[in-house]
Amino acid sequence: MTQTSLNVAGDFPLLGRTVRDGKRLVYLDTGATAQKPTAVLDAERRFNEKHNAAVHRGAHQIAEEATEAYEAARAAVAGFVGAEFSEIVWTKNATEGLNLVAYSFLNATLGLGGTAAERFRLAEGDEIVVTELEHHANLVPWQELAAKTGAKLRWISATEDGRLDPASFDVIGEKTRIVAFTHASNVTGAITDVPAVVDRAKAVGAYTVLDACQSAAHLPVNFTELGVDFAAFSGHKMLAPTGIGVLYGRGELLEAMPPFLTGGSMVEIVTMEETTFMPPPQRFEAGTQMVAQTAGMHAAIDYLNNLGMDRLAAHEDQLAERMLEGIATVPGIRVLGPTTPENRLAVVAFDVPGVHPHDVGQVLDDQGIAVRVGHHCAQPAHRSFGVHASTRASAGVYNTNDDVDAFIEGLKQVVKFFG
Amino acid sequence: MTQTSLNVAGDFPLLGRTVRDGKRLVYLDTGATAQKPTAVLDAERRFNEKHNAAVHRGAHQIAEEATEAYEAARAAVAGFVGAEFSEIVWTKNATEGLNLVAYSFLNATLGLGGTAAERFRLAEGDEIVVTELEHHANLVPWQELAAKTGAKLRWISATEDGRLDPASFDVIGEKTRIVAFTHASNVTGAITDVPAVVDRAKAVGAYTVLDACQSAAHLPVNFTELGVDFAAFSGHKMLAPTGIGVLYGRGELLEAMPPFLTGGSMVEIVTMEETTFMPPPQRFEAGTQMVAQTAGMHAAIDYLNNLGMDRLAAHEDQLAERMLEGIATVPGIRVLGPTTPENRLAVVAFDVPGVHPHDVGQVLDDQGIAVRVGHHCAQPAHRSFGVHASTRASAGVYNTNDDVDAFIEGLKQVVKFFG
Amino acid sequence: MEQLYQQVILDHSRERSGEGTLENPAGQSFQVNPTCGDECNVQVNTAEGKISELAWTGKGCSISQASLSLMYEMVDGEPVTEVEELGETFRELIHNRGQELDPEKMDQLEDLGAFTGVGRYSARVKCALLGWMALRDALIQAQDGSKEGSGE
Amino acid sequence: MEQLYQQVILDHSRERSGEGTLENPAGQSFQVNPTCGDECNVQVNTAEGKISELAWTGKGCSISQASLSLMYEMVDGEPVTEVEELGETFRELIHNRGQELDPEKMDQLEDLGAFTGVGRYSARVKCALLGWMALRDALIQAQDGSKEGSGE
Ligand SMILES: Cc1ncc(COP(=O)(O)O)c(C=O)c1O
Ligand SMILES: Cc1ncc(COP(=O)(O)O)c(C=O)c1O
How many CB pairs under 8 A join A and B? Predict the structure, then answer.
């Protein structure tokens, strides 16, 4: 096992702090949210100190600069995920992006968007397919859409090792209108075979919605090549600030889709009676946007591009392998998900039989090791493993072998303490 | 006229920059977005460098700190607007807050939220009342809601001097279910007599939705005393970062309302079939929130509280008076809105006959004076004045008499250049 | 760690008192901790102003389980008003950021004083209080019921 | 200021050429600048590969009005392919951040060169191009129409 450490922890101010009476912080909770490099914080601050103004709404110099920064960030994101400029819509987080798609289908179903939007109308008898491994963000909006339109929710099930079970792909059938699925599970870390799902969905003419929240942050992704119709992810998981997310939508679809949030900056002509809307992406960006955060997002993309997503992925593969091997040396621990490093992220959830995750996390925290405990917003995924909750260690660009080793050592203390 | 300058421009780094080849920046576009004091930028950065972690989702020390910062900011906002802690919902901007209310009514109408939510159901024959002075953010969502539910949109009209016309308040009648209106117009600057509208709405049992986007930033406000049911405003207009906004909802109503965005952190029990939701405010905060921005919002509220909203309002009153008097010295200019300083903000839109607002703004910009040109996201308000667009100067805490004087001088140049 | 996981807590989390269900509870309350999906159900009957029967089921961490078990031992058979008062004092302790309350209150809390350290960890506050939230809720129901009952 | 508001522009914004409407335009396009609500409507007929008739209406700032007026003068009666080429060159100029293009292109642009300064102000780019966007759109319609027409 070679060390592929990128040695960038020094770029991340928060990682220099200590916790619990002077302990070195070992941050293994990147699956929840990533720490931010100085370059990102500087970019956001520079925007606020030099170029802050209303975007697409002013004719003065600072407003022009703000608008240019805002759209340059969009171009950077488009390049990062293999999309066209106007296929990138800013949202506050991935959750909003997924809701945007669900609500646009609802609005079309309720008659908005004219004939262009008829293709998005749902009716009783239609089916929406999700999976048992979804984060609540890519499950509950579809439950709600089904409840409101009379469509039926069906789902792909999970295998014992936490992957999508191809044997259950036949829930995708003639009645399927939408297939919403995750690119990578935030519980099991398993990476989905996207083409297998997309091919099947395309064969029946269903729209595909990809939850790229974990993947875009850790793998090179190209939505055009993946062939999905929509994809959503969050900046805060990929070194960018909180409060900024992205929805990708295939150009032709965004063109035809009715808006979701309505208000300023997304309209053409407004009378008291009636309103016409701008083309995408503006049509989906109502109100004053998270402009300073787009500047931070731009810097995060630059940072990741400089590093190279391939190198980042290789680095994290190696950490995943080390984590899995380390966990295997602690007797009794059950990994929820694949136990081998292929086609998975460095996101490892596990069960310590007889010890509740809260207690596991507490003993780790006491040693300075920050992990996540609970259901990680994926209760059905946990239920598929027959557990209520789990402990999850997840790595990022800044983690090192030392971090993994400290975590394994900490896990041994947990077992000792409660053993 | 006494100078009440607060002399705080030095707290705002951006105001120290120059524009257009070294000209001093005179920023009179606060109605669009405010500049940020160092204290706000520092608070946001401190959060990112010391306390950034997932909120309400982790058991490690940093997650605890992040959660505490996030909820402390909510408490500060609640205190600032006279609300209870759980009546404050974070949004990305005011636009989202207003859409949240409209979509929750829609969801209730479509059967979600059980019997508790029946009170929000709309039906054909019901009426929604708005006003001609609304920002598109408080108009288009209601147009859309009406189109989707079969309710009818009616409106209060504007007087010649840009106030709500009490003679038209009788559009609020027995069929009215919702009255959505602005606390202060972002075009005319007129402050609404809120009790007059609320009393009428209450008399017919209609819900009231207040657009407090301009008011909360410039006046002391107390939503409980105003007696409104919902109110929305944006952080970026009140010295806080972009990407953070607030929806106020009366406790009893938020309790009964079905959620809008769905996903993580707002659910109780999730099965593949069905989901139960948390109580407010969490029910309305799906996904990872704009946590660093709440820290910035907290600092902005502290800054405003230290200054005193009464003093701020008095300062801006004086600037408004100086602006109106100055404009009156430039022949031919028509103010859109009240021409006297009572019951108005320091937001002054005007028409220079024969000169298009773009051209007005350009000549001002050339002198370093940043104003807004266009329809300011309020096309119907402009139409009520018989114009397409206007130029708007709007002041903030950091402006001085010198700024106003420079603006008036600039306006004279405009008339000279195109005269 | 030892400050948080006092021996009393570890013991009660392993050997739990009061687990079970009642046949005809006058009050019952189901509570969830949304972070982890932990849950508990508390059932209660009252008679002559006292808790006459009490039982609980639940799954959760050592803190929440020990809290339920110790709660059972401390309040079963006790006067409702005293139980409510004890609950208030316990809540106060848990919100006291790891500091003890004044000696009088610590005396009143008896073994519950072992939870003092929980207050240092804000993410665990809910764990310690989950059972007590359910109890408060269940008691309100039980007493509403008995008032209604006696009114007929 | 004088760099932006060249005399040619000020003159054309006051004395506008080509304002009006056609009776039976083969192509027409309505364009809005959402920032300010400015709008224009361009109508066109083509014959033998040339613009045979052209008219426009609109409201907007001096830049957009002057651009429409000068556009009319430059393209009315000209071959469609040349007009499209001119439009491309003009777009290139406006996106050139205030710098002139190479002398050959500047020659081609003739009086349109007065718009060079607009490129320094990104918020005004749309003003200068609004009419040309409408013309491009209208020409596409007109030619689709004439192709369809000739096919019958
Ligand atoms: C009166 C009024 N309402 C609503 C809004 C919308 O606010 P935001 O764009 O921050 O959502 C604004 C500002 O643009 C406003 O001035
Ligand atoms: C797989 C997955 N999907 C969706 C989300 C939701 O992202 P956010 O909370 O940023 O909206 C997350 C993270 O919480 C996630 O891990």
Answer: 328
Residue B312's region, left for phi above 0, alpha for psi from -120 to 50, else beta, is alpha
In this complex, do B63 and C123 lie within 8 Å of one another by their Cβ atoms? Answer: yes
Strands B18-19 and B23-24: antiparallel
| Residue in the structure block whose two tokens are 């931010």 | A36
Q: Which atom of ligand 2 is nearest to the CA of A185?
A: 1
- Residue located via tokens 């262009």: A116
Domain that holds residue C69: 2-146
pTM (predicted TM-score): 0.96
Which fold, A9-30+308-418? Aspartate Aminotransferase, domain 1 (3.90.1150)
- Domain of D35, CATH number, reads 3.90.1010.10
| Domain boundaries B43-304, CATH class | alpha beta
Q: Is A238 helix (H, G, I), strand (E, B) or coil?
A: helix
Looking at the domain assignment, is residue D152 inside a domain?
A: no
Structure-block tokens of residue A187: 């519980």
Residue B374 and residue D36: Cβ atoms within 8 Å? yes
**In this predicted complex, what is the ipTM?**
0.94
Q: Do C1 and A373 touch (CB under 8 A)?
A: no
Active-site entry in B153, B261, B377, B387: B377
Q: What b/e readout covers B320-349, taking b as 16+ CB neighbours within 10 angstroms?
A: bbbbbebbeeeeebebbbbbebeebbbbbb
Q: Is A279's Cβ below 8 Å from some Cβ in D?
A: no
How many angstroms separate the most distant Cα atoms in chain C? 54
Q: Percent of chain A having pLDDT more than 90?
A: 97
Of C35, C61, C121, the CB nearest to A356: C61
Q: For tokens 């609004």, name the residue.
A: D130
Task: List chain B domain ranges.
Answer: 9-30+308-418, 43-304
Asked whether residue D151 is assigned to any structural domain, the reply reads no
Rounded to whole angstroms, how far apart are CA atoms D63 and D52?
25
What is the C-alpha separation between C131 and A410, in angstroms, rounded? 30
Q: Tens digits of per-residue pLDDT, C25-79?
A: 999 999 988 777 789 999 999 999 999 999 999 999 999 999 999 999 999 999 9
**What pLDDT sits at residue A410?**
98
Contacting residues of D for B20, CB less than 8 Å apart: none
**Cα gap A13→B117, rounded to integer Å:** 47
Q: Does C37 touch chain B (CB under 8 A)?
A: yes
Residue D56 placed within a domain = yes
Partners of chain A (3+ Cβ pairs below 8 A):
B, C, D
Our count of domains for chain D comes to 1
Ligand closest to CA A234? 2
Distance between CA A325 and CA A321 in Å, rounded?
A: 6
Domain assignment present for residue D135? The answer is yes
Give residue A4's pLDDT: 57
Of B131, B347, B377, best ligand 1 pocket probe by most atoms within 8 Å of the beta carbon: B377
CA dist C89 and C92 (Å) reads 5
Res A1 pLDDT > 80: no
